[in-house]
Fold this sequence. Notes:
mainly alpha; de novo design (two linked rop proteins); 2 domains; two-stranded antiparallel sheet; 47% helix; globular
Amino acid sequence: MDQSASVLGLEGNALYIKFKPSLDAKPVSFPKSNPELTFVIAKSFVQADKHTTGPVNYNLRVVECTLAAKILAKKHELTLPEDNGPLGSTLRGFQDTYFAKQCGATGHEEQLRKCIDIVKQDLSKDGYTKEEITEILGITIEELRQKYMDRFPSLYTFDAIFNVTLTNIACASSCRAISTPKPSPPCFH
């Protein structure tokens, strides 16, 4: 996204970027205000140790969202296509497959809202143990470890619990991101 913003950005505008079905970027102008809007960009000089935080933040989310996609597909008797996700399956793959089967020509935002409902209904627990995941997916604990935990290193312990909340957050974040941008009136304090 950073690269798209730097190449496609327009001075004085935010940028609404979509990557599916193809790259699309639209400038979103800010409302006129008095005083004029001002943005301050500050460097904190705090360095992010991505080698340390990656397995906790990004990698963990990838593993959990991939497992959620696999579990949802299993519960809906779907076969997920291999896609460009780091572990070969994504929530987007579930979404596309689910709505293709449902013959749902609804818009992307409506599909995401339905996906949030599906996650709440089908992943109703706060978390799942590795034993529950393997039972749902019909794989062994060793296969779970090799396919998901070893291939994309995260700070999952072997007794890890899959957290459904992150999946819900991922769906909701996607939904918020694609909602038609409407500039808010400025707020001054």
